[in-house]
Design a protein that fits this description.
By secondary structure, this protein is of the alpha/beta class. The chain has helices at 5-11, 26-33, 51-62, 77-85, 99-108, 123-128, 132-139, 149-153, 155-159, 171-179, 187-202, 214-223, 233-253, 259-264, and strands at 16-21, 39-43, 67-71, 90-93, 141-146, 167-169, 207-211, 227-230. It has one domain (5-256): TIM Barrel (Alpha-Beta Barrel). Strands 1-2-3-4-5-6-7-8 form an 8-stranded parallel barrel, surrounded by 8 helices. Bound molecules: 3-hydroxypyruvic acid and magnesium ion.
Length: 267
């Protein structure tokens, strides 16, 4: 089976940079897959896309060196299994709050006897290879999201569930829960996510986190996170376009870009 290179990076103590796709497009998925990111996550929770678009995006990511991950909308075993069948090498599941939910989630990601994933590997065979079914359990990753107050309280019980490959923190939902909003400072949720990071690290379970961009991602790496998501595709697209426009407007205000001249020339 095709190796899961992010498992190897994590085992070697290396950081994983994870792209995040909210735009439903195979073309932009392929572009982000070629960005140098080690993994790329198709976001079916908050992304503007559905299963049929996610399938095309997973196919596009397959043409790149990045490992294909998905974030599912919720703890929905049939949906999780279908996305694994579509070739996802890891599933990030939001709002996991208890050991019971964790067990249900991990079971959906594993074929029997470790779990209850149903047989029907479909595209997993095309992307993973002919031995997909035999090797899937040790290759695909089950990644619960920790982003509720209950999950923070019960983190040791959650981490005790066998088969968790990583935990992923949703800092914004955690801020809603613990700080009453997403503005800064986020005193309580920052302390909580640091405690989760330490609890996971102590057990050798890697911890990932969503970040606003590269600057925050660098700080999170220094804090001890093993996987960072430096903002989503839409944020990068709009940020860089705004910067380009701002630069052109600034040049025009200095009188050296000729925006008006371009307009009157009819281009
Ligand atoms: C959160 O910050 O809550 C997230 O889920 C990020 O994707
Ligand atoms: Mg969230």
């Amino acid at each position: 089976m095709r190796a899961n290179t992010i498992r190897k990076r994590l085992a070697d103590g290396k950081t994983v940079i994870n792209g995040w796709l909210s735009i439903g497009s195979g073309y932009s998925a392929e572009g982000i897959g070629h960005s140098g990111a080690h993994a790329v996550t198709v976001d079916l929770q908050h992304g503007m896309l559905d299963f049929s678009m996610a399938l095309h995006m997973l196919q596009a990511i397959s043409a790149t060196p990045a490992m294909p991950l998905v974030r599912v909308p919720s703890l929905d075993p049939p949906k999780i299994m279908q996305l694994l069948d579509a070739g996802a090498y890891g599933v990030i599941c939001p709002m996991i709050s208890s050991p019971e939910e964790t067990r249900e989630f991990v079971a959906a990601c594993r074929y029997p006897p470790q779990g209850n994933r149903s047989f029907g590997p479909s595209r997993g065979l095309l992307y993973g290879g002919g031995d997909y079914v035999a090797k899937a359990n040790e290759t695909v990753m089950a990644i619960p999201m920790i982003e509720t107050a209950e999950a923070v309280e019960r983190i040791d019980e959650i981490l005790d569930v066998p088969g968790i490959d990583m935990v992923y923190i949703g800092p914004n939902d955690l801020a809603f829960e613990l700080d009453g909003g997403v503005s800064v400072p986020r005193t309580k949720s920052e302390a909580a996510l640091d405690a989760v990071l330490k609890a996971a690290t102590k057990r050798g379970i890697p911890c990932g986190i969503f970040c606003s961009g590269a600057e925050e991602a660098n700080k999170r790496i220094a804090q001890g996170f093993c996987l960072v998501t430096p903002g989503n595709d839409f944020a990068h697209l709009t940020r860089s376009m705004k910067e380009a426009v701002a630069q052109l407007v600034a040049e025009d205000e200095r009188g050296d870009a000729g925006l008006e001249r371009t307009a009157t020339n009819g281009y």
